[in-house]
Every structure is written in C-alpha cells, then in structure tokens.
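Supplementary Methods S3. Complex input for the NDP-bound model.
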Amino acid sequence: MTDIKSREVRLASHPHGMPTAANFTMARTQLKPPGDHEVLVRNLFMSVDPYMRGRMNEGKSYAPPFALGQPLDGGAVGEVMESRAEGFQPGDVVTSNYGWREYFVASPEALHHVSREIRPLSVYLGVLGMTGMTAWVGLNLADVKAGDVVFISGAAGAVGNVAGQLAKQRGCRVIGSAGSIEKVRYLREECGFDGAFDYKTAPLIEQLELEAPDGIDVYFDNVGGEALEAALAAMRKNGRIITCGSISGYNDEKPRPGPSNLSNMIAKRLTMKGFIVRDWLDRLPVFEMEVGGYFKSGLLKNRETVAQGIENAVGAFIGLFHGQNIGKMVVSLVSAGAPA
Ligand code: NDP
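Predicted complex, serialized as structure tokens:
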C-alpha cells in the first residue's frame, strides 16, 4: 500500500472576525510510504474546536499559531493501515494530533492507542477525549463537591455537557445556559441538569437569578462576556470561578472591556482559576479510568453532532461559532455506511 493520496485542509489567510470558507483551501498530497519506526494511519474522525480560532490569528495564542499554506492540525482518531514500528499493527485504533487530513505517516510517540471496543470511536475526541478531560480537570481544580450549586455556560457544548454530568455525579445542583430551546431540553432531559435556560431569550443575569435565587458556589466559564458578568453577580461568598474558555470574544477584532462588576471578587472573597488542559496530561490514565468507567457503565451520556467528509470540516468549524452543535462537533472521514 504505497500510493496514498490524502486530502488536507490548509490555512489560506488569517481570518478577521468570523472565519469564512475563503480563509481555507483543500489540497491533495501524495504520501510517502512509512519508513523504519513509522506508521501509516487513516483518520476516521477529526475534531473541530473553538481554541483553533486563536491559532488562526497572526501572532501568539496559547497554542502554536497555524502557518499560512500549511495543513491545520488538531485531535483525530484513526486506524493503523501499515506499520513499521514495534507495538503497532494494522487495525489498531489510535488518537493523534494529525487532524484536518485523511491519512498521515507518524512515529509512535505521536500516537496514543485506544480500545476499538468502545463505540462510537469519535467518543475519543469528546467525552473520553480532550474536551471530556477539560471538563474533568476544571471541576477538580475548583474542588467541586456535593452540595455546590454549579452554573455552566456553553453548557450544551462538548466541555459544558460533560462538566454538568460529572458535577451531577458529585452531588451538585447544576444549572446551564445554552443558545436554543432544543439545547435547554437536552440539558434537562438527557444530561440531568436541575435548571437550564436559553440565554438568547431574556437577560442572562435575570434567568440565572430565577434558577439560582440563593446564588451559586461555582461558575464553569466557557463563554466569558455577559455570562461571566452574570455569574460574578450571582456568586456566593468564597465562590470559585473556573475560567475554561471565552468563546464570546474569539472573533472580536478588538478586545472588549472586562466585566463591569469585577469588584465582586473582593467583596465575596472569590477565587478565579484559569487552566489549559494539556498541562494536565500526566493525569490522562486517571481520567481514562474514572471517566471511562462512568461512560462504560452508562452514567455518562455521549452526544455529538457529526459533519460528513473532510470537505465539510471548515463548515463544521465555523458552525461552532453559530451554535450549530449539540455535544461534541466532530467530522467523520469515513464514507457514510462504511465500517469504521
Ligand atoms: P462547544 O462544543 O461548546 O462549541 C461552541 C459553543 O459555544 C457553540 O455551540 C455555542 O453554543 C457557543 N457559542 C458560540 N459563540 C458564542 C457566543 N458568541 N456567545 C456565547 N456562546 C457562544 O465547544 P467546546 O466545548 O469545545 O469549548 C467550550 C469552551 O471551552 C470554549 O471557550 C473553548 O475555547 C474552551 N476550551 C478550553 C480548554 C482549556 O484547556 N482551557 C480546552 C477545550 C476547550 P450556544 O448555542 O449555547 O451559544
């Protein structure tokens, strides 16, 4: 198997504001066969994530910027097609950071074995992957425990829904905000949230007060902006804010002013903690055991929105900023109906 042509998505120009299809190009490359200690992998699913937006800008983000004319990268789950490396056999399923392309050749250090038995395999990009781990790390950093009232913004997305389900496992009262009635229903009926509201239909601060009239102990922030301001107002004394993401500002061309009510930090003795999941990768085995256990026993539900084909990957990515996903947004690179 030596004549492999692979399509890949490249960054054509830096987006200004909301990205458009014109910022990307599709290229076809001819892959070299794997050399000694190398593995050829066919991607089955790839991830699109909001953090990639920062990497599309010129200059620094918290991850290395994407280079113009070069393929993008990101989480992917694939199947080994050919191996010249010890410990890898055709048919093995691996995760990698070689997303946004159909095939790739890599050395074993860039690959992580996962079980083929768990289905769908795309779960390794969501609940059992980077976004699930982000939810788990965030809750641990804020020492979320039974009895806490926890508010989560972006709650119906990949990180948010897992954070809420895990907080429920810990015995918390969980409230989520999301951008549609369908998402609110999903949070209440499928994820077991105690309260949920559509932040687009009425002022967030008023809806949060209705759901948590006695205030909140923990705010899991995926969104920033208005949601952070509402949470600061609703926090109880000694409350904790987990600063996970700030998607409401990712496409702003100029930074917005910060929350007008930050002085709540002082009066209420609040703690605000930011984190990047990749700093916690040494905890991956613990995460896989604990959260994998919840998933296998049915205590943690997996929901995803699946775009079909690499030609729809850019649309799926842009869709994140229009709220087009419930649960994790993934792109399937396997033809519909073909075995993965
Ligand atoms: P999601 O699956 O939540 O997808 C993005 C969602 O954000 C959309 O569905 C939409 O939902 C919401 N959204 C989009 N634009 C806006 C806006 N302007 N205002 C409010 N909500 C908006 O993504 P992830 O779960 O992957 O990521 C969630 C957050 O966590 C992001 O901020 C991301 O950057 C961050 N993150 C941080 C990590 C870390 O290590 N710190 C790691 C991974 C993610 P809706 O319909 O509800 O508006």
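The mean pLDDT is 96. Residues 25 and 131 are 26 Å apart (CA to CA).
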